[in-house]
Amino acid sequence: MAGQAKQSTSKAKAGLWAHTPPLPLNTSPYFLSPLALAAHFKWLYRSWLPITERLIFFCLAFLSWHFFTPHLAAGQAFALEWIALVWLKNIILMSVLAGGLHLYLYRWGKQADRLKFDRGSANRGGSRFTFNNQVYDNIFWSLFSGVTIWTGLESLLLWAHANDIGFWIGYSDNIYLFIGLFLVIPMWNSFWFFCIHRALHWPPLYRLAHHLHHRNVSIGPWSGNAMHPIEHIIWMGGVLIYLPLACHPVHFLFSQQLSILGAVTSHSGYEGLVIGGRKGIRLGDFFHQLHHRFYECNYGTAEVGLDKLHGSFHDGEQPPASLQKNRQP
Questions:
Q1: SS3 state of residue 26
Q2: Which of 182, 159, 149, 302 is nearest to 252 (CA)?
Q3: How far apart are CA 284 and CA 296, in angstroms?
Q4: Residue 247, strand partner residues
Q5: Under DSSP, is residue 196 helix (H, G, I), strand (E, B) or coil?
Q6: Confidence at residue 329, expressed as pLDDT on a 0 to 100 scale
Q7: What is the average pLDDT value for the chain, to the nearest integer?
Q8: CA distances from 157 to 172, 215, 237 (A)
Q9: The dihedral formed by the CA atoms of 205, 209, 218 and 26, expressed in degrees to the nearest 10
Q10: How many whole angstroms separate alpha carbon 204 and alpha carbon 233?
């Protein structure tokens, strides 16, 4: 099997892509029948350890809650002072992560094309982009629309928590529920993303909003959150599920950061960072990279394999039947 995967990867590299992970891709084993516990634990381990995006965003959620979130007493009423602090925290997180990866990978080219999926560049100009520049376009929509709507939803949930609206639990109220939610949140994010993403490809919604994100065929860190405000509201609105759930604010902070900041890393265009001459932290998501190239496949993520049920799964080798008939450039 390993030899076949390497051979498949070599074929892909010789064709459309400069680099691919081992092919064919697969989705999580969570919904396999019969139950495969060993595969479950292996997927779970690789998702969190040793140092992964998920673990980093998990730690970041706790740091955000303890050190960068206004005191709950201030959040009992909507006020510009504390909402501005939330906005400042989010704009710093977005700018440092997206800006840092863009500078390191594209502007400075610190690892050249090592582990880079696309043969193209994420720094193209063109009249289809705002300001006739892909990077400026992506920065504008990510910061001015994305961070603003992210902040609005986070502030709403913090206000609800400060006013005892919802079913909130503390660290010691139910330790099993508290920990278990962190394992379920990535699956919820994946489920919500598939549902709204598939809806956004409905032609009227695509023309109204989603086309803006798909200007990016060759993607980069800033393109992950480059969306129309309508799409930002629909996509980020999935966090409102935490209002009726028994949870803690750190859960919805983790959910938001995993989804929103995770879009930065998944759109990096690179499979990972090269550290000490070897692949270090995993970054890009080839599963989603295929969607940006072919449009009509991989609407969700590998975490919840809804694309397999929907018939839109692309494993990097054999595209869905619909793409075999009508493949977009």
A1: coil
A2: 182
A3: 19
A4: 168
A5: helix
A6: 36
A7: 90
A8: 21, 32, 11
A9: -40
A10: 17
